Amino acid sequence: MKVKCPVCKKETEWQGNPLRPFCSERCKIKDLGGWASGEHFIKGEKVEEEDEEKKPTLH
């Protein structure tokens, strides 16, 4: 079965492809960078971060 790489849209094999759904390591890393930079995200309610003073401390 062939699928399109979500990054470059090149057709790639699904079966036996350890990088699936990506066609290459480069596309896999590029996608990961998009998530890390905030370019990719899942919509939802905004969550306010706690102040450092309010966070519980681990002992």
Task: Give a structural overview.
A two-stranded antiparallel ribbon has the order 1-2. It has a domain at 2-37: 2-Layer Sandwich (Erythroid Transcription Factor GATA-1, Chain A). Helix content is 22%, strand content 10%. The protein is an alpha+beta fold. The N and C termini lie far apart (53 Å). Strand 1 (2-4) and strand 2 form a beta hairpin.
Task: Give the arrangement of secondary structure elements.
Elements: E1 2-4, E2 11-13, H1 25-37
Antiparallel strand pairs: 1-2
* Unreliable residue stretches: none
What is the percent of helical residues?
Answer: 10-25%
CATH architecture of one domain: 2-Layer Sandwich
Strand line-up in the sheet with most strands:
1-2
Count of DSSP E strands? 2
Class based on secondary structure composition and strand pairing: alpha+beta
Number of helices: 1
- Beta content comes to 5-15%
Main beta sheet strand tally, sense and closure? 2 strands, antiparallel
In CATH, the topology of one domain is named: Erythroid Transcription Factor GATA-1, Chain A
- Global geometry: elongated
Helix/strand order: EEH
Gap from first CA to last CA: 53 Å
Question: What is the average of the pLDDT values?
Answer: 90
Radius of gyration based on Cα positions: 18 Å
- What's the CATH superfamily of one domain, by name? Erythroid Transcription Factor GATA-1, subunit A
